Amino acid sequence: MRIQISRPAETETQGFKVPVVFEHSPYRGDFGPAENHNVDFPVLPQENLFGDRAARARSARAARTKRTRATSARARARARLKARANLPGSLDNYYVPRGYAVVLGESIGTFNSDGCPTVGDRVETLGTKAVIDWLNGRARGFDAAGNEVEADWTTGAVGMVGVSYNGTLPNQVATTGVEGLETIIPISAISSWYDYYRANGLVVAPHSETQGVGDNGFLGEDTDVLASFIGGSRMDDRCAGTIPFLVDAQDRVTGDWSPFWEARDYLSKVDRIRASVFVVHGLNDWNVKTKAFAEWWYRLARLGIPRKIWLHNGGHGGPGGTGAAAYKISENRWFDHWLFGVENGIMQQPRATIQREDGSYSDEPDWPAPGARSATLELSAGNATDPGELSLHSSGRSLTQSFVDRGRVLDTDDVLIQGPDQARSDRLVYRTASLGGDVRISGTPEVTLRMSVDNRNAANLTAVLVDYGAAGSADAPVMVTRGWLDPQNRHSISRSQRLRQDKLYRFEWDLQPDDYVFKAGHRIGLVVVSTDHDYTIRPAPGTRLSLSPSQSSISLPVVGGGGALGL
Predict the structure, then answer these.
(1) CA separation for the pair 3, 234 (Å, rounded)
(2) pTM of the predicted model as reported, rounded to 2 decimal places
(3) Among 79-83, 287-291, 384-388, whose mean pLDDT is lowest?
(4) Is the pLDDT of residue 119 over 50?
(5) What interhelical angle do 223-231 and 242-250 show, nearest 10?
(6) What are phi and psi of 128, to 5 degrees?
């Protein structure tokens, strides 16, 4: 592992020992070109999963894309430890004057570090741990000249911070319980790579927020694509075997959970954490989606791990705008408490800080909001074609409504959630009556839909929670959250099961967690589609699906429970 260090001069001239703010990253340099997988198919790759062996092999081959990588070798510095007065980025500019050392690491298989990148597994985790071990005298380190160097200038107390992959590495190493890691601040961080690249058995992409609607630059990305990028030129020679391994093991045909994904899951290892955790995430982050922080947080809470959470209303990354300065102060105070032992009251403050839709912030006792309880809204429809309703009581009327998937052609947000008063042949929509007061959801919504796939053996299922404006208003609908399911994984994410055409099944799945306020007079909407244009693999148009409203519902984590809906 190659690391760079910046520390106060007093650690050299006066023998002071200081704690460390440590950011580990695969993004320091030497990036390789990588091509995303194809996502457009005549039929979904899992369509022939239960057919003959040759058909399955054809599906697997079709789901892969050859990628082109640079072949030129690049020289690499042999340095493992390097002292610098000014490091890339701003961490040292902020924290070294405040009495910390700052360490920037290069993750295994990237830039100047040895090894091959395998994205999120145990080897990557142990590579991160090795730096903390060296800082605590349990591992050997060498400078550029090959001289052994000890970290005799640090107390050994380490706090990790980072955004995205740089925030995921702290999650990973915290689950080892490594001594010396006192706290982590994961920002927009992954807690399970399965949840990043899959959703309930479905192959789902993260979203590139720099792209416009209908233009997701991450569509078709997977672990092999990411490894090609962060590994750079080494992927053409000494790491040439890594990509074929990742392509085969990640399985873009079934989307099933497997030992490959288990090795890249940290949720099951939360009980090993000995550090405190300050979670930071954007409620509109569709790159590292909100399930990543929520499932992590739920487990931290169950185990009573010291924790704090800051949820802003932006996308991927840390808080911006008016919240940026206040957040940085909280981050600094958190490190002061856990690394210097300063009793500054940070642990006596409200546990949660949440930004609302209008940009304002509020401090709250916890997240989800105390008092949030599941409220179930039943689906109903007056006939087979018109938009239906959401209400606290089922109409009991038995009928089915059908639609035909055209998701490769139409973007979900731009088209399919629009015009809720009109029947469409490519989606189903259900809405509540106008809300009598503001309604806040806080937590994880879930849907239960009784559906059939009428003319295929595979399909995408997508549910979208929408905020529709007051009746007669010109307010544009707001996509609040969404979730996906592979119907073949209706019983388990670990095992695909044959899907019989025209048979009604009970499908249950979660939407991405959220904290959102529907204003008085607005209407809560549920839109059901098949292919989600910017997220899922896309078959040719033509898959027909049917839904039984009287046997379907959506459960929302409403603050105040069902009574707060006023319906």
Answers:
(1) 19
(2) 0.94
(3) 79-83
(4) yes
(5) 160
(6) -65, -45
Name the token pair of 40. 């457009």
Q: Does residue 285 have an active-site annotation?
A: yes
Specify whether 312 is catalytic.
Answer: no
Chain-centre distance for alpha carbon 438:
28
Contact yes or no for 547/363 (Cβ under 8 A): no
The predicted pLDDT at position 68 comes to 33
State the catalytic residue, choosing from 207, 312, 316, 337.
316
Residue 170, SS3 per DSSP: helix
User: Of 388, 392, 360, nearest to 378 (Cα)?
Assistant: 392
How many CB atoms lie under 10 A from the CB of residue 32? 18
User: What pLDDT does residue 474 have?
Assistant: 83
Place of tokens 């994904």: 261
Q: Which of 92, 285, 467, 515 is catalytic?
A: 285
Structure tokens, 430? 């259900």
Band of residue 397 on the pLDDT scale cut at 50, 70, 90: confident
237: number of Cβ within 10 Å: 9
Length of the chain: 567
- Average pLDDT score over residue span 381-385: 92
Q: What is the pLDDT of residues 416-468, one digit of tens each?
A: 999 999 999 999 999 999 999 999 999 999 999 999 999 999 999 999 999 99
Residue 116: other Cβ atoms inside 10 A: 19
- The helix/strand/coil state of 235 is helix
Domain ranges of the chain: 2-31+73-189+261-364, 40-69+196-259, 372-565
Place of tokens 């991160």: 128
Topology of domain 40-69+196-259, per CATH? Answer: Serum Albumin; Chain A, Domain 1 (1.10.246)
Cα(464)–Cα(428) distance, integer angstroms: 10
- Please indicate whether residue 316 is annotated as part of the active site: yes
Overall fold of domain 372-565: Jelly Rolls (2.60.120)
Classify strands 276-282 and 202-203 as parallel, antiparallel or unpaired. unpaired
Q: Report which of 451, 452, 462 is spatially closest to residue 551, judged by C-alpha positions.
A: 451
Q: Are 47 and 458 in contact (CB under 8 A)?
A: yes
Candidate list 25, 59, 113, 164, residue with the active-site label: 164
Q: Of 3.50.50.60, 3.60.40.10, 3.40.50.1820, 3.40.50.720, which CATH number belongs to 2-31+73-189+261-364?
A: 3.40.50.1820
Using DSSP bridges, classify how beta strands 198-199 and 101-106 pair: parallel, antiparallel or unpaired: unpaired
- Nearest alpha-carbon partner for 497 in 507, 483, 508, 487: 487
Q: In 3-state terms, what secondary structure has residue 168?
A: helix
Residue 506 has pLDDT above 60, yes or no: yes
- Torsion angles phi and psi, residue 166, rounded to 5: -65, -20
Distance, in Å, from the CA atom of 487 to the CA atom of 476, rounded to the nearest integer, reads 31
Pair type for strands 154-163 and 18-25: parallel
DSSP letter string, 181-223 = EEEEEEES--SBHHHHHEETTEEB----TTS-TT--TTTT--H
Average pLDDT, the chain: 93
CA distance 27 to 468: 40
pLDDT in tens, 85-109: 689 999 999 999 999 999 999 999 9
